[in-house]
Task: structure prediction
Amino acid sequence: MKKFLLLFLSAFLFASAPVASAVGFEIAENVVITQNILDDTYVVAGNATIESEIFGDLYIIGGSVTINNNVHEDLVVIGGRVVVTGDVDGDLRVAGGQVAVYGNVGDDIIVAGGQIDLGKSSVVGGSLITGSGILTVDGEVKEDIRGGIGMLLLNGKVGRDVIVTIEDTMSISDTAVIEGDLKYSALLESTVQENVVGGEILFNKFERETILEDLTYIFFISKVLGLIGALILALFLVFLIPKALMKSAKITKDNILKSFGVGLLTLISAFIVALILFVTIVGVSAGLVILAILTVFMYFAKIFVAVWLASYVFNFKKKVSHIKLFGMIALALVVYYLVGIIPFVGWVVNLILFMVGIGAIVLLKIEYYKFLKNKNMV
Result:
C-alpha cells in the first residue's frame, strides 16, 4: 500500500499541474462563484462554493470546498472538506481530509484522503484510483478500483477489477457487483459472497512491515505533504509580494556565496541565542519565540529558493503574470523536493539550498531597510 500510495500521490501532483493561463482567478477568505465561466478557473479560499457551470478546467485550494454545478473539463481540488454534487465531464483529482462525490464523473477519479464517499447515484466513467483511510463506494465505477485503503466498504457496482491493498478491513455487501476479478492483499481474509464477483477472488496475505519500511513510508509521505503545503504558501506569496520574490531572486543570483554565508550565520546565531535564553530559565519564552520565527523562516526559505532557481530558466526582467510566476515556482519546488529524496546526496543539496534561501530572506530584509533608511523612514 505504501509504495502504491507514494506513486499515486506523486502522479497526482504532476498530473494536476496547470499548463494554461486562467481566465478566472479568485483569492479571498470566502469565494462564491455564481456566474458561468467559459474557460479555466483558479480559486484559493478558506471557503469556496461553486454554484455556476465551469466550461474549462477548475482548480481549487481551500479549507472547505463545495461544487454544486457542472465542470465540463477536469476538476482538481486540494482541501480539508470537499463535496462535489455537480457532474465532472473529465477527470476528478482530489486531495482532502473528507471527500464526498455525489455527481457523475466522465473519466477517472484520482483521490487521496482520510474519508472518501462515492454516492449511490454517482457513475464514474473511468477508474477510481485512491489512497485513503476509509473508502465507501455506493455508486458505480465502470472500470477498475485500485489503491491502498485502510477500510473498504463496497455496496455498488464495479465494471472491471478491484485491485487493492487493505490495511484494516474490507466489507463487500451481498448487493455489490464486481464484474471482473477481486484481487486484494490484507492481514486477514475477508468473507466475500462468490456470486458478487464475476471473475476470480485472489487473496494475498501479507505480514507486518518492518520499522525501516514504515520510516521510509513516513519520510516520503511527509515530503509529498510538505510539497503541497509549499505550493499553497507559494500561491499566496505570488499574489501578496510578487515583486519582492523576483527582487530576492536577483539579489541571490548576484550574491550566491553571500546568501549562503548569511543563511548559515543566521541559523547558527539564532540557535545559540535561543540556547542561551533557555539556560537562563527566565528567557525560555523569548527562546521559544526565536525558534518559532526560525521555523517560519525555514518554510518560507523553500519558496525563495524556488524563485531563485526559476530565475535561471525564466527572464524576470520582463513582465510576468501571477499565474506564470506561480507555475515557475511550482516547477522549481517539485525539482527541489525530488532532489531531496535522492539517497545520500539529496539532503546535502537541499541543506545548501536551504541556507541560500534563509540568506535570501535576510538580504531582502536588509535591502528594504537600506531603502527605507535612505528615505528617512526609519
Summary: Residues 1-22 have pLDDT under 50 and may be disordered. The CA atoms of residues 267 and 294 lie 8 Å apart. Helices lie at 2-16, 211-240, 242-254, 256-279, 284-310, 322-340, 346-374. The chain is about 40% helix and 30% strand.
